[in-house]
Amino acid sequence: MKNLLSILALAVVLVGCSGGDSAKSEAPKESGSKQITVAMLPKKKGVPYFTSCSEGAMEAAKELGNVELIYDGPTSGDAADAVKLIDQWTAQGVDVIAVSPNDPAVLGPAMKRARDAGIKVLTWDADADAANREFLVNQATPEEIGNSLVDAMAKDLGGESATGDVAIVTASLTAANQNEWIKFMKVRLAKYPGLKLVATKPSNEDQKLAFSVTQDLMKVYPGLKGVFAISSVAFPGAAEAIKQAGKSGKVLVTGLSTPNDMKTYVKEDVVKSVILWNTKDLGYLTIFAARALADGKLKAGDTTLAAGRLGEKKVVGDNVMLGGTITFDKANIDEFDF
Amino acid sequence: MKNFRWSRELTLVVLLLCLFGAASILEPKFVTMRAQTLLATHLWELALVAIPMLLIVITAGIDLSVGSIVALSAVSFGLMFERNVPPVVAAGLTVLVGTVLGSLNGWFVTKMKVHPLLVTLATLAAFRGMAEGISTARAISGYPDWLLNALQGPTPIVLFALVAVATHLVMTQTYFGRWVVAIGTEENVSRFSRIPVDRVKQWLYGFSGLVCGIAAVLLVARNNTAKADMATGLELEAITAVVLGGASIHGGKGRVTGLVLGLLLIHETREFVSWHWKQNELNLIVIGSLLILTVLLENIAERRKDRKPKVAITATENP
User: pTM for the whole thing?
Assistant: First the structure.
């Protein structure tokens, strides 16, 4: 009997402890309109790219004052874990769920369950089936990305009159995002008649493969002047291949990545330009879109959205456009830490 | 109080009550039917797989390959579906694939006399590799809605209940159940007592594979996708539930009732922690602490009992 009593006592203590804890953590912030809870799901938690997005989101939540932000995601990048979180938020009855789906097919049913429960669902960073969300917060159009990549390469190779062979190392030949970018890159390359696209090779999201593919490209095309490594995995692989071949500065490589991942290559002059959209602004805009959606201020047919320090942002169809890319180079890369 | 026996089940019930008590104060929404049903959807594959794991652990064995069997079965289902095999036939064949894989483990354990830890450690890697190989690590999606709906909602719960009740009856009412316990208690004595040790083990590993096959079909339906990296780490979750449920990793001890409560406690704790603190990585720490806490609580309870002289009774008769 004593045992039972001691366990009951323990239970009371446990309940007491956690009760006190929650009183501290839940300080209600009321300012004007209704307090809402926004749950934001990255593809994978703890990745610098998504962490910097979350910083922007936190900034927006703080600025708005009436948004409680939950930022959580699978640490393994497992889509099934993401589904668990979405279901949990649905059960909690949050107001808006903003999802960056790492696998739209797996997350689709959970997003639908959330919408059926009356929760507003957004996608950001990457899209899912349009039936399962109301808006996509779109970081940059494929056209902007394609143009930025080609323009940066041309600039680094000497501007309008740049000449030489260039090649693309892509993610996989079926990757939808990359194929869209490649389409617009080819259009943009026409602006620079001296640049000749000689090959497009897959790296299947494998850094080692990107490394060997780039080595092969340098052997096969002696006139190779530039490589577009257009996945975050292919980029460092290609850069490493060029560095080890001792061709830093002779063969340039550019692509999309976060500044921290490429900082060393930029400082060693292997890479002159790293292209990316502003990740903090992407998180920031997502929260403003979520708030507007919850208030009914963002609805089908709208063409603009007021987004705090970003000003008026364009809404095209069901896409809220962040727009614009930034180029990191030796001069500015130290200002960014993500 | 003289006949009062402290059992693992009681410890788990107390812990569960504490958890729900805390939850109803901190997060009233957590203790609603609606929330609980929604949260429970992710439990059933683990729950199913944990049952044969319990039996294997009782024989002093272990099956580390369950996650990989689920993945390989799931991928087989996806590939069959892609080749227009009718879903019902594909589901049946998937369960068969699981059974064959599980039986393969059993064959190595009983015929080759390799320790189950080694066998299933090898197949853990091999089956996962095969799943990645035959699917080229693609995700296979696009199943018809009727199939997804048929395999969700009450279906997994009914399946689990059937398997759990049947196993409980087999373990408590039949010779087979007694053999399982006897093998785990004293394998050599069991052999001398003419218990068909190898056949029992072969059956159990096959049963584990069969249940993994069922879990695979359910998992594919729930995620609308078959992918080679599914159910990674499932084996550890299952073993945790089994041990938390009171089974001894040295064999000879364990009950289905304990396992069910253990599963429930793991599930509720995990969901509550992630719900309240909104950081799902805390889960791992909490599950680990839970395991230690349960064992500690029981040790405190046991210590009092141990002061009295105890007579060890072994229920084996030599021929």
Answer: 0.78
